[in-house]
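Why do we care about 3D structure at all? Because function follows from shape, and shape follows, mostly, from sequence. That is the central idea of this module. The next example makes it concrete: a single protein chain, its amino acid sequence, and then its structure expressed as tokens.
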Amino acid sequence: MAVYSPTGSGNVHIDVILTELSIGFPNNGLVAEKLFPSVGVMKQSNKYYIFGKEAWLPESDVRAPGTEANELPGYALSTDSYYANEHSLQIPVTDEERDNADVPLNPDQDATNLVTSKILLGREVVMKNLATATTNYATNYSRTLSGTQQWDDYVNSNPISDWRTGVRKIHSGLFLEPNVGVIPYVVMSVLEDHPDFIERIKYSERGILTPEIIGAILGMTDIVVPGTGIATGNPGQTLTTGYLWGDDVVMAYVPGSPGQKIPAYGYEFTWSYGGGLKQMVDRWREDKRKSDLVRCSRRYDVKMTALDATGKQIAGYLIKDTTSAF
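And the structure:
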């Protein structure tokens, strides 16, 4: 029979202080909730509604005197479902570590930071894999660049035109322009030296390209520049590191807040813990190991939600292999 503390004498409890530390953990360089906002749910699994496009269908609305008004058939309604798996990691904090730790080391905080960073990295990998797979996008909602099309070819490439193609494609399906752009660090560094952008600002007061200025040129103020790394290999051996998001660019329509009949690129469905916590740290004692175990947990499912009749993404546009470096 599974129990929480099979070898220790203490009970598992939510550590409020460590949980607050975990929730406040900086996620600089991550896309996370910019692309997939977190939506709290009451059940581990459930369904959500998908509304049809009947609101855009014109109707004959002329009514002759004495007759009834034409009656609408209403929305076509379908459902999809989520299942919020729990993602959880733990680490021991030994008595010896606490006794030997010098200022500014804090074994409990350091343990919390480590398990939290791993949980958030795992979530970021899930989102990145979902967002950068061409198979998840509807026909003509993705493009893969090659050769002289790639944006580090400063003579032949046209990143502004490529970007505007994606904007127009999203607008043609939603009648809304995308408002969030994911331009990874390596791509942004290329665009900052691209003559197409430099030409646009050469007479401006600053004359120096920044992500904010590039976003303004592209007509998008919410630009995310993920720069987080990821390692491959085995612990204790030499690891190979690289940029998690590589050189794939994503643009998406993400509403300011979730709601019915509001299209959205996607959501993270988060099944909260007691007290409405989306992320929790608990701790318990294992006397046989002379250690406390610190565990971070988050229960979620990441879903693309604005889909066409074939189940493919239409609130986003993907441009792959934007540079020759990857």
